[in-house]
Design a protein that fits this description.
Elements: H1 7-14, H2 17-22, E1 38-41, E2 53-56, E3 61-64, E4 70-71, H3 73-81, H4 85-96, H5 105-133, H6 138-146, H7 151-156, E5 160-162, H8 168-175, H9 180-185, E6 189-190, E7 199-200, E8 205-211, E9 217-224, E10 233-235, H10 251-259, E11 265-266, H11 270-278, E12 284-285, H12 294-303, E13 308-313, H13 315-328, E14 339-345, H14 349-356, H15 358-366, E15 369-370, H16 371-380, H17 388-402, H18 408-426, H19 440-445, H20 458-462, H21 464-480, H22 489-494, H23 500-511, H24 518-526, H25 528-536, H26 538-541, H27 544-547, H28 552-582, H29 589-610, H30 621-646
Length: 647
């Protein structure tokens, strides 16, 4: 019925939800504060000993931290009294002393007709159940027994059988005095296109009653016994009682089981749900032959904050999961999501339980992946990302999906998880024996192993000191000015710090790029001590960009310069390392020329370093390293001359 404007507001104003709920619960006096309207009690919707059910009398709502039931006084009466919305309002209006508005006669007629349709559906339930027990249902009983359903299971789920014949149910209901329009209106028969009697909707099918959360039969699902039937499963047509986009099979019992702590499982069909319930997973539901709808998602989340979608382990099952992801992304809220449990290849939950038992299914549920993981799998599975263009296409596809999320906090966390998985996918692997600090491409193709006479030389041991200083400044600048990190993320991925602490900091920076508090996120992974050690180094502390963290232009210039110098120094180190490696063979003119080029490059670097204005290059450390490297070069040249003279 239609209520006048302001009626519900006035009703809620007059009511105390504490008094309404107080009729059903015993308040925990130690935990409750009656004066402030802060009330706690054991939850009336599920069995518990602790007081996890909270009522805020001033705001007029309740919430259970155990089963997540929530609502206002009206919803509380609806759930506890098992009444309709209007009936709950009538109860509360009587308590508040408010006169209910006059009923709309047409609305009353509609409500009366719905009640009549529900009665016709119950008659059909009884007819189908009786037919299954009779001789006409022998083949159907054998089929159910083969699927592991005995007579007790069939009774529990009220499974029946629709016999062959065009008017078997029609004639039965007419014999009970049911009017034609009610049989047709309930979707149990269809009018003949040839002018004859209406014919039964379901024929030669195993019948599964579909009930609403209040327990009323509103539709049927029929499984064909004839393998040549065009439709293996057939649902009732939509009626005044039945809207398949807003209905879940086994909704009422599943809600009750979920309230007692069982995980809410979303399966694909009737038999999967029945198998799950028989195996002890009582909170199992299924959509009705169609893809999950937005309304069904809302219904699922009202039962449990994180339902587990259990899908067949085949291509069709994965496609169904991917459709659910696209539907759910814009609807996500904090604490409200989905997880996905994929069955083994070629099996559905029913198959898995019959083949391996309930324990095998429980393992799949325990390993259910969060939605972000399945989203990543969809975009990457079977793909090869061997070019920048393919990587960019992946980035674009993922960005487009994440943009669908309306909640900014969830969108941010999805971005972080995607970055972490992207980092794991694209991070260059360092082969065994590869020298830290060399370009990744060289390390993959030609690992460097210093020969014995040079392994302990100053060239190898001390030349990494400037690199460590530059890497330290790069990392500290990124931590201090996180706004520019995304511009240098690609370059940061390519550096391979020789210092283990620096590697850990670099990896943490890339994983948490975009975090609200980058320094806190990095410290949470590597520890605050590692950050303090980095920032307290003298050559870091005196860097101009770190003294003025608000100057992003200065920070940007510092990063660009240090990365360029690091790249140039590594190119020089690469030449020397290759020359050192070639000393294991016979020196020739090519090697002599390469060493001369390396010496000249180093001389240019030395001259540049003498005019370097970077403040962390202070003292004579750099000069000492330059002298050592020059000495190493001279030693190499002398060895070549000696080898030639000996020849």
């Amino acid at each position: 019925m239609s209520l006048p404007p302001g009626f519900l507001d006035e009703l809620r104003t007059r009511l105390s939800i504490g008094q309404v709920v107080g009729r059903k619960v015993m308040w925990d006096q130690r935990k409750s504060n009656q004066a402030k309207g802060d009330l706690w009690a054991p939850c009336p919707f599920h069995q518990e000993k602790t007081a996890s059910f909270h009522v805020d009398d001033r705001k007029g709502y309740y919430y259970c931290f155990g089963c997540h039931a929530k609502g206002d006084a009206i919803s509380f009466v609806r759930e506890t009294e098992n009444v309709s919305f209007i009936e709950a309002i009538e109860i509360l209006a009587g308590e508040a002393g408010m006169q209910m508005p006059a009923r709309d006669p047409r609305a009353q007629e509609k409500a009366d007709r719905r009640s009549q349709l529900a009665e016709v559906m119950e008659r059909a339930v009884q007819f189908y159940r009786l037919s299954l027990r009779q001789g006409v249902g022998a083949a159907a009983r054998d089929y159910l027994k083969g699927r592991g359903l005995d007579g007790e299971a069939a009774d529990r789920f009220e499974i029946g059988f629709a016999p062959e014949g065009w008017q078997v149910l029609w004639d039965h209901l007419k014999g009970k005095g049911v009017e034609d329009d009610l049989i047709l209106g309930a979707g149990l028969a269809k009018p003949s296109q040839k002018g004859g009697k209406p014919y039964d909707t379901f024929r030669n099918r195993i019948m599964f009653p579909i009930r609403d959360p209040r327990g009323r039969c509103i539709a049927f699902g029929g499984r064909a016994m004839d393998p040549n039937d065009g439709a293996k499963y057939l649902n009732s047509p939509e009626t005044e009682l039945f809207d398949k986009s807003r209905t879940l099979y086994n909704h009422g019992p599943a809600r009750e089981a979920a309230g007692k702590g069982q995980p809410l499982i979303v399966a694909e069909g009737y038999m999967d749900v029945i198998a799950l319930v028989q195996a002890g997973f009582g909170a199992a539901v299924a959509p009705l032959g169609t893809a999950v709808t937005e309304h069904q998602l809302a219904m699922l989340w009202r039962v449990a904050p994180e339902p587990v979608v259990a899908l067949d382990g085949d291509t069709a099952g994965l496609r169904a999961a991917y459709r659910v992801i696209d539907l759910a992304l814009p609807l996500l809220e904090a604490g409200q999501s989905l997880r996905f449990a994929l069955m083994p290849e070629g099996q559905d939950p029913d198959d898995l339980i019959r083949a391996s038992g309930a324990g095998a299914l429980q393992e799949r549920l325990d390993a259910a992946m969060p939605m972000v993981r399945l989203l990543w799998q969809r975009e990457t599975e079977g793909q090869v990302f061997d070019s920048p263009e393919r990587k960019a296409a992946l980035d674009r596809a993922l960005r487009d999906r994440i943009k669908l999320i309306r909640d900014p906090s969830i969108r941010s966390h999805y971005g972080q998880d995607i970055k972490e998985m992207r980092w794991q996918l694209f991070r260059p692997a360092r082969p065994a024996g590869a020298r830290p600090g060399l370009a990744p491409g060289f390390a993959r193709n030609r690992p460097i192993v210093p020969v014995a006479p040079t392994r302990a030389s100053a060239l190898v041991a001390d030349a990494e000191a400037p690199e460590r200083m530059r890497v330290a400044v790069i990392l500290a600048t990124c931590l201090t000015c996180p706004d520019i990190l995304d511009e240098f993320e690609g370059a940061l991925e390519t550096i391979e710090p020789s210092d283990g602490d620096h590697r850990a900091l670099r990896d943490a920076l890339l994983r948490h790029a975009g975090a609200v508090d980058l320094r806190e996120a990095v410290a949470g992974e590597v520890g605050a001590e590692a950050l303090e050690t980095l920032m307290s180094n003298t050559h870091v502390a005196i860097t101009p960009s770190l003294r003025d963290p608000q100057n992003t232009d200065l920070a940007r210039a510092t990063l660009a310069e240090e990365l360029a110098k690091l790249d140039a120094a590594r190119g020089h180190a690469l030449e020397l390392a290759e020359a050192v490696e070639d000393l294991t063979g016979t020196p020739d003119e090519t090697l002599t020329w390469r060493l001369a080029q390396a010496a000249e490059a180093r001389d240019r670097a030395m001259r540049s370093q003498q005019t370097d204005t970077t403040e962390y290059d202070t003292g004579d450390n750099g000069a000492r390293i330059n002298r050592d490297e020059r000495a190493a070069l001279d030693a190499l040249m002398e060895k070549i001359s000696f080898e030639k003279r000996r020849k």
